[in-house]
Amino acid sequence: MPIQPYLFFEGRCEEALEYYRRALGAEIEMLMRYKDSPEPVQGKAPPPDKVMHACFRVGDARVMASDGFASGSPSFQGFSLSLAVRSEADAERVFGALADGGQVKMPLAKTFFAKRFGMVADRFGVSWMVIHE
Q1: Are 81 and 52 in contact (CB under 8 A)?
Q2: What pLDDT digit, counting tens, does each position of 89-113 carry?
Q3: pTM higher than 0.70 for the full model?
Q4: CATH number of domain containing 91
Q5: Is residue 94 a contact partner of residue 131, using CB atoms and an 8 Å limit?
Q6: Does residue 118 sit within a domain?
Q7: What is the pLDDT of residues 9-42, one digit of tens each?
């Protein structure tokens, strides 16, 4: 039974999907907008063009995403997504792409447990740990 992260970008989901496509080679597997819902949205509905549900793949992992209620204030706290890469060059490339517009928490470097490890919060505030063992 797999656990899949579900990220709420509060109005920036489509921008995030494009960013991850470019930065990580993510493949968007599914995208549904609020206007495409077969049933009316309960409560205060976000704008119809916002993303109700999306699924994207990075390597073998699936991540789900949404604009949520499109409040404009995403908050990603208390977790990090860990991305294991195949080479030091991949670690450098991916870390650099995630750091573009984001905030480096721990620079990518050799550690006692990995050839490369670093921590970064991307431009949306999602925390990532990049590792090449």
Answers
A1: no
A2: 999 999 999 999 999 999 999 999 9
A3: yes
A4: 3.30.720.110
A5: no
A6: yes
A7: 999 999 999 999 999 999 999 999 999 999 888 8
**Phi and psi (nearest 5°) for 21?**
-60, -45
Place of tokens 């447990």: 113
Q: How far apart are CA 89 and CA 69, in angstroms?
A: 38
The whole-angstrom separation of Cα 127 and Cα 40 is: 33
The per-residue DSSP string of 52-101 comes to: EEEEEEETTEEEEEE-TT--S-----S--EEEE-SSHHHHHHHHHHHHTT
CB atoms within 10 A of CB 108: 23
Structural domain harbouring 90: 81-132
Q: Which amino acid is at 118?
A: G
Closest CA to 102 of 123, 116, 75: 123
Structure tokens at 70: 């499109």
Please name the residues in contact with 54: beta carbons below 8 A apart, sequence gap of 6 or more: 13, 17, 28, 30, 31, 32, 64, 65, 66
For residues 33 and 57, membership in a common domain is answered with yes
